[in-house]
Amino acid sequence: MKKSTRPFRQRAGSVLTAAALTLIVGSAQATDWDMPTPYGDSNFHTVNIRQFADDVREATDGELNITVHSSGSLIKHPEIKNSVRRGLIPIGELIMSRLANEDPLFEVDSVPYLASDYDQAWKLWQASKDILSKRLEGQRLKLLFAVPWPPQGIYTQFEVKTGEELKGVKMRAYNKSSERLAELLGAIPTQVEVPDIPTAFGTGRVDAMITSPSTGANTRAWDYLTNFNHAQLWLPKNMVVVNAKAFNNLSEEDQQAVEEAAKVAEKRGWEASKAETEAKIEIMRDNGIEISEPSPELVKRLQKIGKTMTQEWLDRAGEDGQALLDAYHEQQTNRAIQTITREQTDAPST
To answer: What is the pTM of this model?
Structure first.
């Protein structure tokens, strides 16, 4: 019998003859989904996604089995989104800002100093996830959940005090925002995927990079770099998307199980990201990386670049971008009012 070439494999619970298939209806079946991810097994995103897959398997009593293929071993990072959209694979993970060239709304989480801590990043996510979900629905994709990386910092072979030190330096970039930031700092941006970082430094392809403490520790940055400036530029998010047709082909019970597991994975992932930040900074410090906070001069320079990039982003994103920012600022205002009200309520009477 010729092996099926359908992208989403279904495994029959027993071997059935053609004649029996015409007589037996409703035979128990399980659905297998292959899921590519860009990062290694020790990466906290991958760990979280493997737990998500286990949760789905348990919640569906084995009716939906998600096999995670890490480190770009099944499909490389740049091809994951379109592979899910086209139905070549049913589900996948990618960094959200990779879609910036097709829609600037997807890079809102990578604008410097727009949201540079977890509280701000969460409010930005609440303000943006509905419109981003609708954008993906237009491409036959369903957004399941998103988890941020730790705040992005600057890795170099020298101390960065003002930002002037980065002029002419070959800097690793991974999205449109990191490319533009490098350009505005006078550096030379070069696209390098995470698994290729050590080789890129070893061959002199790049001399510096902007990335998270997680990536720095996981790629053993101390083998090729000496300094990490904890600039906390932005918190880019990875998102998990599923092909809409594949999702709709599931039973209602299995659809609900996937969505519930996604909610749990998102909450777990955000908490894991917070813990990851300090843990990986300590690992780098223990291995000889010099950890520093940005100087006032560097902060001023980066904030000026952030304002420039925010306006450039708004120019590209148009009215939808402005509406997104307005919703984000409203989230911030509401949170500030709640904090003041709580403090006034908790204050002792005199």
So the answer is: 0.84
Q: Which of 11, 294, 55 is nearest to 163 (CA)?
A: 294
Phi-psi region of 44 (alpha: psi -120 to 50; beta: other; left: phi over 0): alpha
Rounded Cα distance between 212 and 151, Å, is 6
Classified as helix, coil or strand, 282 is: helix
> pLDDT tens for residues 271-309?
999 999 999 999 999 999 999 999 999 999 999 999 999
Q: Are strands 208-211 and 170-173 parallel, antiparallel or unpaired?
A: parallel
Letter for the amino acid at 29? Answer: Q
Give per-residue burial for 175-203: e unless 16+ CB within 10 Å, then b.
Answer: bbbbbbbbebbebbbbebebbbbeebbee
Per-residue tokens: 24 = 């037996």
Neighbours of 28 (CB within 10 A): 9
> Crossing angle of helices 252-286/44-59, nearest 10°?
160
59, amino acid identity: A
Q: For 53-84, how does the pLDDT look when each residue is reduced to its tens digit (9 = 90+)?
A: 999 999 999 999 999 999 999 999 999 999 99
As a whole number of angstroms, the distance between CA 71 and CA 48 comes to 14
Q: What are residue 28's phi and psi, to 5 degrees?
A: -60, 135
> Which residues of the chain fall short of a pLDDT of 70?
1-28, 335-350
